[in-house]
Design brief:
The structure is a single chain. The chain is mainly α. Helix 2 packs across helix 3, helix 6 packs across helix 7 and helix 7 runs antiparallel to helix 8.
Length: about 220
């Protein structure tokens, strides 16, 4: 029964995360940090589609986990991550479809949607972490780096997101002479999402303490 609840929590987190990406995409201020790299490469090379480069990035992220974790690596979890990479793409398309009729008429609305996207995406990732059953390749790679290095997951995520954005910007500027898919929203998200996850963890721990206190007093 516990494993069912965990998977349910994870799937809810996966869908919420896809909604966060959809909100960010609708804002038009830059794609999410992880998506910015394959999107930028797809503009430079037609060897693969955007989705194809995204899948290739997922393969690389999975390979990094295998190299870092070695014997601790779980084959079943790796297989699940591979499947989830495609499921997540479908959910993201669905989420974009659900908010397709929303029109943003000014920069303030774009900025608002971008911030909403950050909070929603962070919530989705946080729920996936709480599910403790599986993760998307990118987030699982961050977790593996966190385990090996001893650094906090949230800090590793911030660093990796910044790296994605820098690489995307360099690729676009060198080969296209302009920025595509990487704007102020991408940079803000790179710094903000990890810190929002920290906030959710803090609020969750405070809520647990309050519940325990009320139970003890009762």
């Amino acid at each position: 029964m516990k494993i069912i609840r965990q998977y349910l929590l994870f799937l809810i987190g996966l869908f919420i995360a896809s909604m966060g990406v959809a909100f960010s995409a609708k804002a038009g201020l830059g794609t999410s940090p992880v998506a910015s790299l394959p999107y930028s490469v797809s503009l430079v090379s037609s060897f693969l589609t955007f989705g194809g480069w995204l899948n290739l990035l997922s393969v690389i992220q999975i390979a990094v986990q295998v190299i870092l974790l070695r014997k601790k690596c779980k084959p079943l979890e790796i297989a699940v991550q591979t499947v989830l990479a495609f499921v997540y793409g479908y959910l993201t398309n669905l989420s974009c479809y659900l908010i397709r009729n929303i029109e943003l008429s000014n920069y303030f609305q774009q900025l608002l949607f971008m911030f909403i996207g950050c909070f929603v995406l962070a919530l989705g990732i946080w729920l996936q972490l709480k599910g403790r059953v599986a993760m998307l390749p990118g987030e699982a790679m961050n977790r593996a780096i966190s385990e090996v290095s001893g650094k906090k997951y949230e800090n590793i995520k911030i660093i990796s997101d910044v790296i994605y954005i820098v690489l995307s910007a360099v690729i676009c500027l060198v080969f296209l002479g302009r920025l595509e898919g990487v704007r102020e929203g991408s940079i803000i998200a790179a710094v903000l999402v990890g810190n929002i996850i920290k906030l959710y963890n803090l609020l969750f721990e405070k809520a647990k303490k309050l519940i325990r206190k009320d139970s003890a007093e009762a």
